[in-house]
Amino acid sequence: MAREILLNAFDMATVGHIQQGLWRHPRDQSHRYAELSYWIDLARTLERGLFDGLFLADVLGVYDVLGGGPQAAIRNAVQVPLIDPLMLVPAMAAATTHLGFGVTCTTTYEPPFIFARRMSTLDALTNGRIGWNIVTGYLDSAARAMGFVLQVPHDERYDWADDYLDTVYRLWEGSWDEDALSGGPAQFADPAKIRRVKGVGRYAMDAMHLCAPTPQRTPLLYQAGASTRGRQFAATHAECVFLNGTAKPQVAELVADLRARARHPLKVFVGATVVVGRTDAEAEEKLAEYRAHASVEGALAHFSASIGIDFDKLDLDDPIPSAPGQANQSNVESVTTRAAQVWTKRRLIDSFVLGSRQRPIVGGPETVADALQAWVAEADVDGFNLSRTVMPESVADFVDLVVPVLQERGVYKTAYRQGPLRQKLFGHARLPEGHRGAAARA
């Protein structure tokens, strides 16, 4: 039986997400990022294409490393301005029935008690269609915005996150019994079946969870760390892992490592950008059209902050330094210690096909389907986080052209499964017994 491909749309509540500069394309509508109708239309298109979810990235700072300030990011709309993605979810959920929503929230800057209530609220309002992309943050500007003098060291952020997860597990899984609301006519809920729980490690909490059990209790857990410490964390907590789409052999190594570490079922999504036309020639013409609007400066501003290196200080043929910092270590490793060739600023700029290092899959529907299936076969991934190019046509093109081919080949669903998001992907609505969070159950 053919392996079913999973699909998330990868987006952000901003103008310029991954492919920098494409907002300048005359047909692009991403300037409408603050309009609810824009997101409702997107959600309906994704559900028409039977996408598993809309994965929404987020950051809490600005990209201010290139040139020592935010000017390049501001000029090129590099994830600024940026609104809170969680606010968009209820409207999109009301307009759809099955589409899942993965939202990005950091463990470093918000008390777990408040966060746990917000996620339980979303899980209840969406009828169990919410996922959490767990991040620890990587921008110095975000640390300063939250009152920190310096960013918490990279590995220590993951230590904090372990305690954070163990704390919210206690709230979601251990505070309310499953039948706490079946108190009968004399009482709405049974006080004997609701308990206060304690925080873990640095989180001094003593409280009962304010929300009754929701369809999933704990939201579906995503994580995108590919550094050594990040993989350890992902294998412990994540049910879905997001990896950058570099070379297939490198991704296959990471996938094998993650699967070997995990003690619970794991789905791996790889990042991909698709430019599809009705024929290969039409897709190549579209790529050239899109590429004319891509921004090298915007791409450099994004990547500089991602790895903590000011590329304005490097000559074109200087190798990218590999000294560890507190930024995104998996991105640093991808162009230094894990790279087969030496990366220079010139090589980096040459790789910016559409305003990012993510080389697009380009072709007609059959060509694109072949490429996606090759990733599944050769890198052992389960699906893709598809980043946008020109909106909304890039999403509509994929739904109208590629999805039918995948369905004809028997590698993509023809209808949604019933139940909450976790059940659609794994066959069970709640955390499995082998997951660390299940130990928090009363």
Describe the structure.
This protein has 442 residues and is α/β, with parallel strands linked by helices. The protein has one domain: Luciferase-like domain (TIM Barrel, Alpha-Beta Barrel), CATH 3.20.20.30. It is built from 15 helices and eleven strands. It has helices spanning 36-48, 71-75, 89-94, 112-125, 140-145, 154-174, 228-237, 248-261, 280-291, 296-307, 329-334, 345-350, 365-379, 393-408, 421-426, and strands at 6-12, 53-57, 100-106, 130-135, 197-198, 206-207, 220-223, 240-243, 267-276, 361-363, 383-387. The strands form two sheets. An eight-stranded parallel beta barrel has the order 1-2-3-4-7-8-9-11, surrounded by seven helices. Strand 3, helix 4 and strand 4 (130-135) form a beta-alpha-beta unit. The longest helix has 21 residues, at 154-174. The radius of gyration is 22 Å and the shape is globular. The chain starts with 5 loop residues before the first strand and ends in a 16-residue tail after the last helix. The mean pLDDT is 93.
